[in-house]
Design goal:
The chain is an alpha+beta fold. It has three helices and six strands, in the order ααββαββββ. It has a six-stranded mixed β-sheet, covered by helices on one side. This is Nuclear transport factor 2 family protein. Pfam families: SnoaL_2. InterPro entries: NTF2-like_dom_sf, SnoaL-like.
Length: 121
């Protein structure tokens, strides 16, 4: 049974979407006008990758979920209209990725997300 918060955000739905085989279920958790900022080794804090809207987010998710890798939701905390979660991923060759997300929720959907990620090199 999932935990639905006062914001209408269901953490079990998030888990199933992240750990699934396609990005479609995860995409359904985003508002139409959602924005994602991604910070990592190649996209420094002063110049993050910024995605606007579900179209650009769908392209990212299609790319990520087309790779030979697994995804696991490690932790998720929801408080009011904010949520934070940790995701760990592993490629078939053993390369690991860790992503931390802070999200703002609107009407039970992700409206804004900051992802900070690091991977094995």
């Amino acid at each position: 049974m999932g935990t639905t918060t006062g914001s209408g955000f269901d953490t079990e739905t998030l888990r199933r979407a992240i750990e699934g085989n396609t990005g479609n279920n995860l995409l359904s958790l985003y508002a139409d006008d959602a924005e994602i900022r991604i910070v990592d080794r190649n996209n420094q804090p002063s110049h993050p990758t910024v995605l606007h809207g579900r179209g650009q987010i769908a392209e990212l998710l299609d790319d990520v979920y087309s790779r030979d890798m697994t995804h696991k939701l490690d932790q998720c905390v929801v408080q009011g209209d904010r949520a934070a979660y940790s995701e760990s991923c592993e490629y078939a060759d053993g390369t690991r990725v860790l992503a931390e997300s802070m999200v703002t929720l609107r009407d039970g959907k992700i409206a804004d997300q900051l992802i900070v990620q690091a991977w094995d090199e």
